[in-house]
Amino acid sequence: MHIGIDLDGTVTDPQSCFHYMNDMLGYAIDYHQATEYELHTYTNMTQHDFWTFMIEHGHEEAIYRRSLPHSEVNEVLWHIRKTHQLHYVTARSEAVRSVTEDWIKQHELPLDSLIMTGSHDKVGVVKDLALDLFMEDRYENAISIHEQTLIPVLLFDAPYNRRPLPDGVKRITSWNEALHLVDRFETTKSIITL
Q: Is 0.70 topped by the overall pTM?
């Protein structure tokens, strides 16, 4: 089975970006009250201005370097990789490929492929790789991937993605739960049992 996996907020601890903004940029964002995925919404900047600032001042690379892995992710991904292909599909741009690859190596995570889309639109990659399952934390991505490809999506729970889900998108709270569902999906090949 070919499995697509988002990086930020899925492989990385979703609180990492919020901690960085608080520690390094002087914000006081309460992750548990965070209702928006897009970091610029916690500033007075537009999305374009925010990411221009982050890139020009080295914060984009720093935020990725300082991110912590999600709990249980290492052990679970190595277990899944014994029988499946893992494809990291991230909205990060090619400009941060080396930082991203270094982070994956530093945290000793398995890697079959790393696709840097440079945008949140991952549907084309999902189709091109003929993925069977996707893991994501961004609500809009989870919905569009499922609706446009009909593959099941595991949505890692976070305060910013707690909205109603259609059949075929399953909210999960841990990597151990993801492992259980991957095993179940492999056996049944049915999204109904997810």
A: yes
Mean pLDDT of 39-66: 94
Q: Please, are residues 163 and 179 in contact by the beta-carbon 8 Å criterion? A: no
How would DSSP label each residue in the chain? Answer: -EEEE--TTTTB-TTHHHHHHHHHH-----GGG---S-GGGGSSS-HHHHHHHHHHTTHHHHHHHHPPBPTTHHHHHHHHHTTSEEEEEES--GGGHHHHHHHHHHTT---SEEEE-SSS--HHHHHHTT-SEEEES-HHHHHHHHHHH---EEEE--GGG-S---TTEEEES-HHHHHHHHHHHHHH--STT-
Residue position matching structure tokens 């995570």: 109
